[in-house]
Write a structure and sequence with these properties.
The protein is α/β, with parallel strands linked by helices. It contains nine helices and eight strands. Helix 6 runs parallel beside helix 7. The N and C termini lie far apart (about 35 Å). Bound molecules: SN-glycerol-1-phosphate (1GP). The site of SN-glycerol-1-phosphate has 14 residues, from strand 8.
Length: about 250
């Protein structure tokens, strides 16, 4: 539980943790080192790595390259069962608990578990809750499941609580990468009030004030991906990190 405990400590010390998503299909190889250096200097707490399709290159070498450039935790955020690498530190062992598709609740897990064990990386059991964000996101489409309606925070809260009772260590509220709307504040609040395990919020977060607001509503980990695929935005990573780190923030 090294990485999980590291996340818990970071949350305790900083108020919340800030993770940046690296998608092999969206981040060109030549920009990888520069982006990672930028994130490290700006106070990012770790990287999630994964993608829905993996059209470009191979996952293993992408992870190896990231490892060359950073000491920060590298946590796989798998888009499929092929996204496992011993070069990462941990993997979010995601179950799409918002849906009722058995393949994404347990089926894929049976196939992936032996490979994860062999790789030696730390699996972190995570309840993956897809939330409607105004249009069909890749995550909703690929999982073949319905997201939780935006105006039903009580369903999200009950789903999260059931997941915690089942032993899951993290709750991931996901609006979907590039979502039009982020997870509603009321839903973040309702879920955070029900659960004692950390709540991750991601999808459609494009400004630091929104990131801060999610933390104020109870989120313990904020994830951004899309917004920093544009190099012109890299100077704002620090602003995001400071907004998330409520305990030691010097807001810029
Ligand atoms: C996706 O939550 C992450 O799984 C990040 O979403 O790319 O919209 O920031 P964005």
């Amino acid at each position: 539980m090294k990485i999980y405990n590291h996340l818990l400590n970071t949350i305790k010390q900083k108020g919340a943790a800030y993770l940046v998503l690296l998608d092999p299909d969206k981040l060109p190889e030549e920009k990888l080192q520069g982006f990672i250096n930028h994130c490290e200097r700006s106070g990012v707490d770790g990287f999630l790595v994964g993608g829905s399709l993996m059209i470009n290159g191979d996952f293993e070498s992408f992870i190896s390259r990231i490892k060359l450039f950073t000491q920060l935790p590298i946590i796989i955020f798998p888009g499929s069962i092929t996204q496992v690498s011993s070069n990462a530190d941990a993997i979010l062992f995601l179950s799409v608990v918002s849906g009722r598709n058995p393949e994404h609740l347990i089926g894929k897990h049976v196939l992936a578990a032996p490979t994860i064990k062999k790789s030696g990386i730390e699996p972190i059991s995570t309840a993956y809750i897809l939330v409607d964000s105004g249009s069909t996101t890749t995550a909703v489409y690929m999982s073949g499941s319905l997201p939780i309606p935006r105006n039903k925070p009580e369903i999200a809260a009950a789903t999260a609580l059931a997941s915690e009772y089942l032993g899951m260590k993290l709750i991931y509220l996901e609006a979907g990468s590039g979502a039009e709307q982020s997870v509603p504040d009321e839903m973040v609040k309702a879920v955070s009030e029900q659960c004692t395990v950390p709540v991750i919020v991601g999808g459609g977060i494009r400004d630091s004030a929104t990131a801060r607001k999610k933390v104020e509503c109870g989120a313990s980990i904020i994830v951004t991906g899309n917004f920093f695929e544009d190099e012109n935005n890299w100077d704002m990573i620090k602003e995001f990190a400071n907004a998330v780190h409520t305990k030691n923030s010097i807001l810029v």
